[in-house]
Structure formats: structure tokens, C-alpha cells
Amino acid sequence: MTYDNTHLVSDYIRYVKAVQRHLRYEAHALRFAQALEIRVKIGLSNRCHTEHPDGPVMTVQPWHWGNSDIVRHETAHVLLWWSGLEAEIIEEYGEELGWKVVENLCNFTISFLKITQPMLDSAVLRYGQDAKVVRHLQKIARATPQQALLRTVYDDPNGLCAGFMTSGKYIQEVAQCNWSLPFGWLDRVPEPALWFPDEAKVSFARINSNATLGMCWG
Ligand SMILES: [Zn+2]
């Protein structure tokens, strides 16, 4: 074993960001894939053949063709393979668990491919370290609240940041980067603000009538 997998996610985030920088932060899924010379074809299922002798090729169902999260997910497979980290994952976790890790990582990557660094940086410039950043990113990138939350929390793998979303009185989503929230996924937390000490830098933003988003930076 030569590679320490505890750095895997942060190494992958850095790699994805470097590729995005190289492509001048193209956020359109299909244009991004094509700029990487990934062939995108129409097919009956969504899949990716990274090791094709003529270069990577993905097939997507017709209704996912274009600027879609499916194209981003399949592109993430190619990036993960190119980065060499896919092989490390399979070696460490084996075929069965390893491919689940790969799938989760590729789903996670959608938020990075959709919400680029300039989008995030300008949102932070505008709102500061505030939950409004997440709501703003959700709107401008047409992302889900979950995607905007993940993208913001994991932006700096060395930073301290955490966020959560409620659904009614329950915690629906948590994201934690080197920082532990005082509650977990599916916990019943009617008043999240009461769980934080007064000096905590926690901010809230309303997502809809039933959901609130909370963010804290270290
Ligand atoms: Zn996949």
C-alpha cells in the first residue's frame, strides 16, 4: 500500500478543481465533457466506458443529453479513472464495496462540476460566510439545495465547515468537513439554533416553508 486513502476525497476535489480551472470553469455539462474529448453518445442506459481504446466514451439516455447531472456523473467517472484514484479505491475496498464508493464519489462530484469556483467565490464575496451563499448558489447554478450545501461545505478540504438542512422538525441532510455538528441525520431537532453556543458562527436561511438551512464556518 503506497497511497493513504484518508486523503482520497480531498485529493480528488483538488484534481477536479484543477481540471475545471484548465477548462476555464465551463459549467455546461456536455460542453465540459466534450472539451475533455469524452465522446457522448445516446443509448438505452447511462454508463461510461473509461478504458475504450479510442478514449473514454459515455452513453446517456436521450432525455439526459445536454446540460444534465447524468452527464456530470459519467464525466466524474472518467475524471476519477484519469486521476488514478479509482484504482486505489478498488484495491483498498475490493470490487463490491469499492464500486459503491466510486458511485457515491461520482454523485458527490456533480455538485463541484455544476457549481464552479468563480460562482462560489463571488457568492462569498457578496454574502460573506453565511447560509445565504448556499441559497444563492442553488439559484444561479440551478442546483438542488443538497448540491449547493455539499459544494459549499467541502470547498476547502482543509477548512472547517459544516452545514445541515431540516425537513420539518427533523434533520434531513448533514455535511461536515473537519467539523462535527451537535446532531446527526434524521435526528429530531425542532429548534437547531438552540444547539449552538452564542459565540458559534452559525447562520440560517429559509429554503421553503418546511425546510431551513444552517451553516457554520470554523
Ligand atoms: Zn456511476
Question: How would you describe the overall organization of this protein?
Answer:
It is built from 7 helices and 7 strands; from the N terminus they run H-H-E-E-E-H-H-H-H-H-E-E-E-E. With 218 residues, the chain is of the alpha+beta class. It has 2 domains: 5-114, Arc Repressor Mutant, subunit A; 119-217. Strand 6 (202-208) and strand 7 form a beta hairpin.
Set out the fold topology.
Layout: H1 8-22, H2 29-35, E1 39-42, E2 47-49, E3 57-60, H3 69-82, H4 85-114, H5 117-127, H6 132-140, H7 145-153, E4 161-167, E5 170-177, E6 202-208, E7 211-217
Parallel strand pairs: 1-3
Antiparallel strand pairs: 2-3, 4-5, 4-7, 6-7
Zinc ion (ZN) binds near residues 73, 77 and 103.
Summarize the structure.
The protein is α+β, with helices and mostly antiparallel strands and 218 residues long. It is built from 7 helices and 7 strands.
Distance between the termini: 33 Å
Q: What's the count of strands?
A: 7
Mean pLDDT: 95
Overall, the morphology is: globular
Classification by helices and strands:
alpha+beta
Widest sheet: strand order?
A: 5-4-7-6
Parts with pLDDT < 50 across at least 5 consecutive residues: none
Helix and strand element order: HHEEEHHHHHEEEE
